[in-house]
Write a structure and sequence with these properties.
This protein is an alpha/beta fold. The protein has one domain (about 20-175): Glutaredoxin, CATH 3.40.30.10. The chain is built from 5 helices and 7 strands; from the N terminus they run H-E-E-E-H-E-H-E-H-E-E-H. It has helices at about 1-15, 60-80, 100-105, 115-120, 150-175; strands at about 30-35, 40-45, 50-55, 85-90, 110, 130-135, 140. The strands form 2 sheets. A 5-stranded mixed sheet has the order 5-4-3-6-7, sandwiched between helices. Helix 2 (about 60-80) links the parallel strand 3 (about 50-55) and strand 4 (about 85-90). Helix 2 packs parallel to helix 5 (about 150-175). The longest helix has 23 residues, at about 150-175. It starts with a helix and ends in a 6-residue tail after the last helix.
């Protein structure tokens, strides 16, 4: 009887305990989800050993809207041959159409639908969640909370930090920067 009670207590504590946050220096959790096109996407396999910029976003999020043009700049500067960009849609409100929203950005990226389970694996609780995972699978950058108002200033700060991390990643990988 004690074993059964211990088992149920341990099971309850495991379920009730929030996921551990993934921080810089941690191995990024592997996951599988579905794109807006209905295709299966597996991370890190699909990133093909490239650094990955992962943004957890929602169509209603003003911070996300401000950051999307900078994500487009990252795609243009580094190119999809060198960087994988994955946009994981989370916390979406009823009646919104996140597929149309992400298509209108014009960014060449992988867009994941209904990514709340993936967000939970990374303990992402606010939008946008922003990470850079190195080609070695280690989280090189995780955006923290900001006190900056939503808009260009916050987006520029994140953009510059992502660029710094990507430049460091390319320098470590090859001893040079990709041509921009």
């Amino acid at each position: 009887m004690k074993k059964i009670i211990s088992f149920f207590l341990a099971s309850f504590l495991w379920v009730a305990t929030p996921a551990m946050a993934v921080f810089e220096g941690d191995t990024a959790p592997a996951w599988q989800a579905t794109t807006f096109e209905g295709e299966s996407y597996s991370f890190p396999e699909m990133s093909e050993g490239k650094p990955t910029v992962m943004v957890f976003w929602a169509s209603w999020c003003s911070y996300c809207t401000a950051f999307m043009p900078y994500l487009k700049k990252i795609e243009q500067e580094y190119g999809t041959d060198f960087v994988e960009i994955v946009a994981v849609n989370i916390m979406e409100e009823d009646g919104s159409d996140p597929k149309v929203y992400i298509e209108n950005t014009g960014i060449d990226l992988t867009a994941i639908q209904e990514g709340d389970v993936v967000a939970a694996d990374y303990n992402i609780r606010f939008t946008p969640g922003l990470l850079v995972v190195g080609s070695d699978g280690i989280v090189a950058y995780r955006k923290g909370l900001t006190r900056l108002p939503a808009g260009q200033e916050a987006a520029e700060v994140w953009y510059e930090r992502v660029r710094e991390v990507l430049d460091e990643e390319f320098l470590l990988m090859s001893g040079c920067y990709p041509t921009r």
